Amino acid sequence: xxxxxxxxxxxGGSHITVALIDVEKRVVLxxxxxxxxxxxxGTVDSIIESWVQTIKASFSELNLQPNKLxxxxxxxxxxxxxxxLMQGQNKFDAFYGKNVKELLATALNISAADISFANxxxxxLQGELFNGAAKDSYSAFGxxxxxxxxxxxxxxxxxxxxxxxxxxxxxxxxxxxxxxxWIIKRYAELTGTDxxxxxxxxxxxxxxxxxxxxxxxxxxxxxxxxxxxxxTEKAEMLVLxxxxxxxxxxxxxxxxxxxxxxxxxxxxxxxxxGENATMLGAASFSLHRxxxxxx
Length: 295
Description:
Elements: E1 5-11, E2 15-22, E3 27-28, E4 34-37, H1 44-60, E5 69-73, E6 77-78, E7 83-84, H2 100-108, E8 115-119, H3 120-131, E9 140-145, E10 149-155, E11 158-161, E12 168-169, E13 172-173, H4 174-177, H5 180-191, H6 198-205, H7 209-233, E14 237-241, H8 248-261, E15 267-270, H9 276-288
Helix pairs in contact: 1-2, 3-9, 5-7, 7-8
């Protein structure tokens, strides 16, 4: 494999997505993209095997053997060394304290030095800086709105995890109010109707007043939480990604109104890269930061 390609890998609590990245053109090779569900509460061997199969399937589209891997991973995680610190989060408990980099390198028969890890929220924003909505920006704030609440901040063109999911907000923490779990719970409270996913809510109930009320409240909460951070960060733009961002038009007006009420003037936009942002960001980090050999 030439130095022009790196496998960008997005690992979530329910999936793995892999695609080869043309780093010179800064694009995902769409025909190499492979996405598969993952049982993140499975055993170490079963999870590694699922990852390996997906990674090999992506490389096989170019008749290549797996080589350099740039992986976006949720935290807490020791990204430099490759050790998982996740515990009690209903995902990857089997990996707690284990060197995931070494396990994956052994399973793929590659060097651990050719595997890099980075925070998934930071990768999302880095991807948008690399070749997306925030391209050519040096300061930006990024959020991944989905099952959880991911946040990242960028200065001088490089993104870092802002780790705001556990920040105090209202009667709990930010993720209690700014995630898909809250939207589903709130809709059930208002209507007595249970839905499994935000997408189901939008697809089946978006024309109903209760659905819009929930998204209005979500947008207001999001704006209220962000105001203090945006005042201190002085970001040029706010980029929203994750599954909830697909319903941007349902909460954008309430979000903008709350930000305006709090005196925040910032460009707010939806990700232009979708899930590709995270894979591109992981590849970007691996190019500009040295890969660490696990010890």
